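Working notes for the structural subgroup meeting. M.R. asked for a predicted model of this chain before we commit to crystallization trials. I am recording the input and output together here so anyone reviewing the notebook later can reproduce the run.

Input as submitted:
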Amino acid sequence: MAGTIAPVVYRDITSRKLNWMMSAFYYTLGSIVGGGLTGLLVAYVGRFALFGLDYLRSIAPFFVGLSAILYALHEMGILSMPHFQRKKQVPSHWRYRFHPYVTAGLYGLMLGAGFMTFIPTTSYIILVLAASFSGSLITGLLILSVFGAARALPLWISGFAVKTIEGWDNITSYVHITKPIMRQINGLGLAMIGVGVMLVA
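Returned structure, recorded in token form:
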């Protein structure tokens, strides 16, 4: 998907650099909005579900920390945990149906929302749990808006760094090769966060 917005597709011509940056901007904006809307939704559901249940709310941080550790084991291939998501990405035909800026915004909206598309790591689940158990709409909004922004960041980095189609192919190959290593690193990070949250809960 990122390749459809990157300068490689727009061709690195001076008059079209602005086109790429505007598409990247709308993609990023959509991703942040999509994440924020999901954050509001899960925080609202969490606040409604835990209304009057102060005991459950008090142990929520411990539960989130424990979940982070369990999903860390999942990332490391030690344990299998539920991983809710759609196993699809954004519709490719949008590129031909809508204006490039609209397409970029819609792509960002779906990807930023998270659960509507494929999610490469389970860290997202921990963020959803944290937003839900926070019981705060503002906290939920902020947590998953940051997720949306983070999901858009690689587009900006690769967009400025890669200048050729071969470069995109190399990045794709590199991501595929290093995916197992990155999952181990992600698992380690989740474990550290989980232990930290449980200690302060």
